[in-house]
What we know:
Number of helices: 9
Number of strands: 20
Largest sheet: 9 strands, antiparallel
Structural class: alpha+beta
Strand content: 25-35%
Order of helices and strands: EEHEEEEEEEEEEHHEHHHHEEHEEHEEE
Radius of gyration: 26 Å
Helix content: 25-40%
Low-confidence stretches: 79-89
Amino acid sequence: MVIKIYNFLTKQLINSFQIDGSASKDLFSVVQRIESMQKTKDILNIGRLGTASFGISRLYTKGNMVTNLDSKSTQVITGICSYELRASAKEEDTTPPNVLIDGEDGGIKVGLIMYDPGWVLKSGKQTYNIFGLPNDAYLKSIGSRNLSCTGISAARKFKNMKALIEYILKNRRVLEYMVKEHGYSWSYEPSCDIFLQDFEESASKKKYQEFCDQKDYLSDLLDDINTTAFDNEPDSADIPAEATEENIRNEILYRMAKFKLFGNSVSDFKKSGKIYRSEFGGMIYNLDEGAEKAIAQAKEAGLTPWHVISDTLNGIGTIHTVLYVSGDTSEWASERGDRNGFLTAFCWNQDQSFGEFGAVQVSAANGGLVRVA
């Protein structure tokens, strides 16, 4: 983790150094650790040693960066183990008090920037929090049986471009598989803007040229992985010739598994044919009156519904997207969708009592489904 100490008022850099740990974890314990370092090293450059007390009570997090200088972040840390979400910071003055050394005024107001240096691998997909808000998904790990993605703050960081390239080459088959089967599109970016800025300012001419060469190679490598000879045709594997009752049931179970629906949705369907709906970022709920109406309309059209995605859109109304299996197996491939989640669905506008068929984009999230487009 990189620590940069500033004069809060002038924004002049006082000191910069690295310590072990993560900027996105145990935020205030990191602040306390920095304060105690003044006992053995004059990190504040004030000409004497002593236990410092910054008096910082609020920190702002932006991905891999934590600071008390930026008031435009959406996550505001107000105390240990507490936070709140809002569009912008509170209006009152957040300027911290002067640094105290052994109880005496140290003469400066301190600003901190802490960040986790490195490069991260972006998946081209999104994650959804419990509020249904989307965030870009980054690689966390590749295990023997699965690949895990997360938000940028918890993503795996590669200390330099060389380490990232070696990792991609080692796991190329896995990355290509995710492109082919699930529509991933891999790219890379710095863990935060200030990391890239610090690197570019400190790198020697030789090291910077080496970085540029590695960057070009990495871009070509990821382009090759993302554009391997895989088409984006709808899923047409093992489609039967006839839409018998048994085949329709098996088709629904296949699609549930493909979209990784939460276990209860699958088991309840197997037991009783119960259908659920997804809302608020993929959270699973029982059907409400509007979703039931949408299902009834789909059934009148001769379809067999198996899940509903509910969204309320400003200026449009509440839309229930009904996923279904039709009676014509030649339509099943488009109903299953392609590797990017594009498929045909029946969309019912609850407020306007109007339904139509159309192409939508669907993604798995929080045990259910979300409509991306």
